[in-house]
Specification:
The protein contains 18 helices and 21 strands. It has 616 residues and is an alpha+beta fold.
Length: 616
């Protein structure tokens, strides 16, 4: 850490001598290359027709696809090598990111949906940045950002953060400890209803010792308390938000034109088309290597892919199998595989679909949920939709953060057993119409799907066909993304095609599948699954300092939720990005490909027209 001797109080521990508690081995196990190891590597919370047969995809032959994938790690490492010395390294260039995810309504970190994270992560800073191994225990590996040093109290119940005096907001105002305390207070304010609030439950308060010293007080000691704070808290400017009513934050002008402290600043937003961020030329941590990064919003994945192939965009974070053949034949583009922290599922609502909170007439029954899970051939579904670019999910956890995933006992695909179980529960097809009934109530339900996601629509159609085979009538209900999110938030659905990108720490599962996420306003446990056994195992796993005990408790927690089947765990993608060859990528992390976007570069001799615009 570049801090001259004598400039910090003696009680601060320099950043290279941080506290390292016993490491719980839940970090990612994939390292692409030496260049990738030098950058933070593996994105929570952070955060789905027709009745016709599933349409066939144009896929690469399996041998050709396998051959192509074996070349990806080499291509990724080759592209990550820094440019040569001299003028070739001069800052400059524009990267256009094609995206088919729903355009976010705003860029306020404490309220924005997951698809906004790559954008606001360029605008705002954390107190410290997680290290290359994504360690979440203690503070080992974390690097200074807004804080240049920190000191633990002897009882580990408080941490003093010394802010970098050079840190500035994009309007020139200094970043102070008051901003840190304000951001925390705003995040946990019930009027804001931030989905981040449950992730900060162990933070009791933040006090201001002086303008550059914030003291964070914790309710209890925890191996992950440092991570829980710094990873989830992007600091906001008090002087610009203090007068905004907490319940009006998302509608404020700031939310659409934010002022942050990151290496990029807000430039312009053409609603429905394009968002642009420009490099801050005199940034206190040094200038970004690029002049500009832009997101080009596409109405669907096909349009986003066409833009990349045509040269109108430079990067697409997640290619689909049917696109790989065209990518391989395009000399201007390259492929890069990187680890994923995503998983997808069909979530059952255990509460009534009218949002009343009463028990759901179907899905409150654990054995019925298990029977439906037995009726879905998840391996076949994943193969048809993703070819080789995904695994069948093992539960609400990606393999990268749970090394013991092979020990989880899965509910098997067994149609005969599913039918027998449904018979024993009283669900029979008395009238021979192919749909089971019990007490005059048909085994029928709808599945919400965002109409912007062809992938989820394909998954839903396949599940629909397979569940027909065990006597369930499933109606796929495509919705505009805003309506889909509203219905989920209001708990007004039977089932929904969902997906999450998890944090490096498994603690986020408390928000998405724990009781706190089901009961808390703004919580993300939309299906209302509650299990005291699951909650207790998660709590014990998070509190355990001994790696062996922690692993045993995580296995117990995941086995509990897999057995309870609050969802059908469908897929875990293997992520393959497409990028223009002129771009030197850095640090494609499992928790976010954008983590080192400010270090991406374009050599001077390889720049094209849009690279020469400069910072405006």
């Amino acid at each position: 850490m570049d801090v001259p001797d004598g400039t910090l109080p003696a009680h601060y521990r320099p950043a290279d001598r941080r506290r390292s508690l016993p490491a719980v081995p839940f970090g990612p196990s994939v390292v692409l290359c030496a260049e990738a190891r030098r950058a933070p590597l593996p994105i929570a919370v952070r955060r789905p027709v027709v009745s016709s047969p599933f349409p066939r995809l144009r896929l690469l032959p399996r041998v050709a696809l396998a051959t192509l994938l074996t070349l990806l790690p080499l291509s990724a490492c080759d592209r990550m090598r820094p440019a040569g010395d001299g003028d070739a390294n001069a800052p400059g260039g524009t990267v256009v990111v094609a995206t088919a995810t729903a355009e976010p309504p705003h860029l306020l970190p404490i309220l924005a949906p997951p698809q906004a994270t790559p954008m606001y992560a360029q605008l705002f800073d954390r107190l410290a940045e997680i290290g290359a191994d994504l360690n979440t225990v203690g503070d080992a590996g974390f690097r200074p950002r807004l804080a240049r040093a920190w000191a633990w109290a002897d009882d580990s119940l408080s941490i003093r953060f010394a802010l970098d005096p050079r840190a500035r907001w994009h309007d020139g105002a200094p970043v102070t400890a008051r901003d840190v305390a304000f951001t925390f207070a705003l995040t946990i304010d019930p009027r804001v209803a931030s989905p981040v609030a449950p992730l900060l439950a162990n933070v009791d308060s933040i006090s201001v010792a002086d303008s550059l010293t914030a003291v964070v007080w914790f309710a209890r000691r925890s191996p992950q308390q440092f991570f829980d704070l710094v990873y989830h808290l992007y600091v906001l400017p008090q002087h610009l938000l203090a007068r905004v009513a907490p319940d009006r934050l998302a509608a404020s002008p700031f939310a659409r034109q934010p002022v942050g402290s990151g290496r990029f600043r807000f430039a312009r937003w053409e609603r429905g088309r394009r968002l642009e961020l420009d490099a801050v030329p005199d940034h206190w941590r040094g200038r970004a290597s690029l002049d500009r990064v832009a997101w080009a919003f596409a109405p669907d994945f096909g349009t986003a892919t066409i833009r990349l192939l045509a040269g109108d965009a430079d990067f697409l974070e997640n290619l689909r199998p049917e696109s790989l053949g065209e990518m391989a034949g395009n000399r201007a583009l390259r492929l890069a595989m990187y680890p994923s922290l995503d998983y997808g599922f069909l979530q059952f609502n255990l509460r009534a679909a009218d949002g009343s909170g009463a028990a759901h007439p179907l899905f409150a029954d654990r054995e019925l949920r298990r029977a439906l899970t037995m009726g879905v051939d998840r391996e076949r579904v994943v193969r048809l939709v993703f070819d080789s670019l995904a695994y069948a999910a093992v539960g609400p956890v990606p393999r990268a953060v749970f090394p013991d995933w092979k020990q989880l006992r899965q509910i098997p695909y067994d149609v005969a057993r599913a039918r027998t179980l449904l018979d024993s529960l009283g669900w029979t097809d008395a009238d021979g119409d192919g749909v089971r009934e019990r007490g005059g109530v048909p085994l029928a339900f709808s599945v919400l799907v965002p109409n912007s996601s062809q992938l989820r629509q394909r998954l839903a159609t396949l599940v629909q066909e397979q569940l027909r085979g065990v006597g369930a009538r499933v109606t796929v209900e495509p919705l505009e993304i805003g309506v889909f999110v509203e219905r989920q938030n209001d708990r007004r659905f039977d089932a929904a095609m969902g997906g999450w990108r998890v944090d490096p720490s498994p603690a986020g599962i408390q928000q998405t599948w724990g009781s706190i996420g089901a009961r808390t306003t703004g919580g993300s446990n939309y299906g209302g699954y509650e299990s005291a056994e699951f909650d207790a195992a998660v709590s014990r796993a998070l509190d355990a300092n001994a790696p062996e005990r922690s692993r045993a408790e995580w296995l117990r927690a995941y086995q509990t939720i897999v057995d309870d089947a609050p969802a059908i765990w469908l897929f875990e993608p293997r992520t393959v990005a497409g990028a223009h060859r002129r771009i030197r990528l850095q640090g494609l992390r499992a928790d976010g490909w954008w983590a080192e976007l400010d270090a991406w570069s374009i050599p001077l001799g390889e720049r094209i027209g849009r690279d020469r615009v400069g910072v405006r």
